[in-house]
Amino acid sequence: xxxxxxxxxxxxxxxxxxxxxxxxxxxxxxxxxxxxxxxxxxxxxxxxxxxxxxxxxxxxxxxxxxxxxxxxxxxxxxxxxxxxxxxxxxxxxxxxxxxxxxxxxxx
Length: 107
Known about the structure:
Helix content is 7%, strand content 30%. The chain has one domain (22-105). The protein has a six-stranded parallel barrel. The chain is built from one helix and seven strands. The longest helix is centred in the N-terminal third of the chain and has 7 residues, at 4-10. It has one helix spanning 4-10; strands spanning 25-29, 38-42, 51-55, 67-70, 79-84, 92-96, 104-105. It is mostly beta strands.
């Protein structure tokens, strides 16, 4: 059994994953902020984006952070996204990459 004082030393060393890294899978784009699960800003450069996103053709491959598949039916989506032009109102920013291996969280 580990003494409790060691937890105080171990816990600060554990990496904290950003909550937007859990946004992956099947997406649906909405056009109202009120309907959205997340408000997203699309960056022009990959260096400033929180997530590098690869748009998967098949929903079965959208299983890791940065791998998204967009659907036309809201009922099939895991998350509803609203894309904004204002970076200040966004919860996180994304950059759509053409290279699948680059997709993921920018931490």
